[in-house]
Predict the 3D structure of the following.
Amino acid sequence: MNILTSQQKDFCSYAGLFGALISATCFIQLMIISREHWLAFVLLVINLFAILAFILLALQKAIAPWLLIGVSTLLFLAKLIYIFSGVFSLVVFLSLVYSVIIVVVLFIQQLPQKLKQKAMAEKAEALTWKDKI
C-alpha cells in the first residue's frame, strides 16, 4: 500500500491545500468586486473548479492531475478575460502560475501513475475485505 513516499504525500497535501487557498482567495475577490454579469459567473465556476481540483490533489485522488491540467487551461482563459476587460489581479496571475508549476512538478515526479496505482491498490484491498466484514 505504500506506493507514495512520505515526501510525495506531503507534496500532494501541501500543494493541494495551498492551491485551494489561492483559488478561494480568487473566488472571494471576484465575488466582492464583480457585477452581475454572465462572465463573472463563468469566472466563479472556474475558481470553484480549481478549488475542487486542488482539494482532490490534497486527498491524493488519481483524477486530480488531469483536473489540474483542465484548471490550468481554464485559468489561462480567465486571465485572458481579465486582460481584455482591462483588469489586472495579481492573485489570479499567481493562481495561474501556481497551477502550471504544480502540473509540471506532478508529471516530472510521475505522480499521476503512482496515484493511479494507489487507487487500484485501495480498490483491491476494499474488495478483499468486502465479504469478510
Observations:
- Helices lie at 6-33, 38-58, 64-84, 90-108, 111-130.
- DSSP finds five helices and no strands in the chain.
- Residues 6-130 form one domain.
- The longest helix spans residues 6-33.
